[in-house]
Every structure is written in C-alpha cells, then in structure tokens.
Amino acid sequence: MFEFGRDLRKLFAQARESEDLGWLELIGVDLLAAEARREATDAGRVSCARPFDTEVRAAALWREHARRSGAVDSLDRADRCAHSLIRNAQGDDQAARAAGAGALALMLRFDLCGDPAHLDRALAVVATAGRPRRSRTVAELAATHARLTARQARLADDPRAMMDAAALMDAAQHGLGPEDVDLRLERAAFALEAGVIQRDSRLLDHAGRDLGVLVEGTSPDHRPLTRARALALCGAGLSALAALADHAEAQDQGRAMFDAAADQFSPDHSPLDWVAIQVLRSGSDALPLMVLNQAEMLTQGQGSILGALARERRLAREIDLAEALGDLAGLDVLEDRIHRRLPTAGPLDWAADQIGLAGVALARRRLGGPEPRRLNLILTEAALTARELGVPALAERAGRMLLKAV
Predict the structure, then answer these.
(1) DSSP 8-state assignment for residue 371
(2) CA–CA distance, 62 with 81 (Å, rounded to integer)
(3) Exposed/middle/buried for residue 155 (C-beta within 10 Å: 0-12, 13-18, 19+)
(4) Which residue did the predictor score with more confidence, 397 or 282?
C-alpha cells in the first residue's frame, strides 16, 4: 500500500542522488527553496562525505529557484556557492566545475536582470577554467561558453555572429548528447529568434522540427516545465513562419498551440514562466488587467527584465482603458502615481515608467489636451537605457511609442 509521506520522502531521497535535476520541475518554488537550503547546509557540515559535489548541487538548485521565482537572494546565494567552490577547488577538474558554476550564475543574472557586463564577467570566469581532464566537464564548459556567446551575438544583432554562435551551440550539443534538454531548448529558441530576425523560413523550419522532437520526447510527467516551454516556442515559431507565408490558418494554429502551453504554467509553481506568458499575451485585449497587475506584483522589487516589461504592459493597458472612457482625470492620477515612484525605481523600471509617461501624454493629446513636451528626449533616454542593459524588447516599446509621437 502506498503511504504518501514515507514513499514521497523515499522518492525524493532517490532523486537527490541523481545528477539529473529534471525532477525539480515536479515541485513548486517553495519546496525547491527548501531543497536548496538543505543542500547548502549539508555542504557545510564537517560530516559531509562529498562537500564539493554537494555545494555544486546547492548552486544548481539556487540557480533553478532564481530562474523560476526571480528571487534576488537566490541569485546571491548561487553566487556565494560559486565563490566558495572556487576557493575550495582542488585539482583541474574541480577548478573547472567551480568556474562553470560561477559563469552560470552570472549568465542567469543577465537573463533575469540584464546588463551585458555580467556576460563579459562570465566569459572571463570560463577563461580561468584551465584544462580539465574529465570529458563531461570539458563539454559542460563548452556549452556554457556557447550559451554566453549566443547571448552576446543576439545583443550585437549581427547575423554572422549569430550563425557562429549557433555553430558553437551545435558543437556543444554534440559534446553533451541529447539528454541535455536545457541546451536543446535554448539552441532551438536561438535558431527561432535568428529566423524571425532574418526572416529566414529555413531557420524557422529547422527550429520548429527541433522543438517538435523535444516536445514529443519530453514527458509531461517528468519534465512538465521543459515540455511546456518547448510547446510555447513551437506555437511562437509556427505563428512566425505562418506570418512570413501570410497563412492565416497556420497563424491561428500557432496561437492555439501557444495558448495550450501557456495554460500549463501557474504562478505558484513557476512564477516567472507564468509572468513571461502573460507579457507575451498582453497584446490581446482579452487579457484582464488584473492578470497584468498580478504579473507585476510577482516581480515587484526584483529589478528584473520581466518585471519591467510587465510594468510597461500594465501601464499601457490602464492608459488605453482611461482613453477609451475619455477619462482625463484618470490619466492625471496615473501620471501622478508614476512620478511619485520614479525616484526609487531601478533602471529598467525607470525606463518602463518613462514609456508610460509618454503614453499618458499622447493619450491626453488625442483627447484634446495640450501638445506633449520633450517626448522625443524622454523616449530616447528610455530606449538607450534599455539597450545599454541588454533589453531590446523594452527598447523596441520605446521606439514604437516614439513613432506614435511624430
């Protein structure tokens, strides 16, 4: 007979011994944080049989918690684990693994909060890894280097650099093998983005095939988040390919696939995945304002990219609603609220608020109010800030607003 508590503990104990951390996708962020704390505590015990390996695992768990929750303190804990590993590493292989943990923490900090300086620092850490002897360690470092290079190529918006980065990711995938689903997913997403930017149907088709294989080969009972992320990218890829071909039916199919994947995320299990989906859905008027409010609340105080995008989308929706009602007083209240929080806003939130202020001014003009002043300067500064921090999506929002101001 299955005794839930005892057997669940037994399953967890077995999973903890495995190098594959895919089982973490089955637990919520609160339990994930508890697991990370347990590993970090065990690594510091005198009685710990393998303190280095345990701390490597603790660093991975803190990174996963930060990736799913956006918690800044989890990012800091992952950094501290990496610094401890670098201090205590013995031999070339441990030094290389410690460098890999440090680079991955810096890469995740860029993914969550922006600032390309984190990518430069991460590549510098990888360069200190030396010459590990274990083939697995060599392959993992190569994959980290490829992922960092891909991010830099994306920011540079250089097709040649993107193709070179894609080749590095292909080589890294060959070294690690098909079981590394995270790299497979990132590689397909990179090809998808390159195809959209270059309007290359061949790249989009290639990315779609890779994502389809990943969806078919990933069980929702074992890797539900990976499968849902891949399915969402499949929907986005099909929509992009259909847009290039001007195929309305395929676009509808892509949106349906994306929505089906989106329904598999929940704000308690993986908050940032849920927020990302809502930000992508925010172009639809059918998305309730309270959903955008919740998305912003889940990312409040993190200084994150997703938080700034959710903030900008929520402001845009409030502005649209006030304008539709002809509510000039409502626009004044919204403008005052934005001004009051500007002094304490981080750089990305500041850029989002500048875009919001410009939106208020333009809506007021359309309702018969005065001509806005200094809009070009406000939006140019917002776009520049976003680009400097490596957040082109926010910079593009400012650019589109600038076109409306003309």
Answers:
(1) P
(2) 9
(3) middle
(4) 397
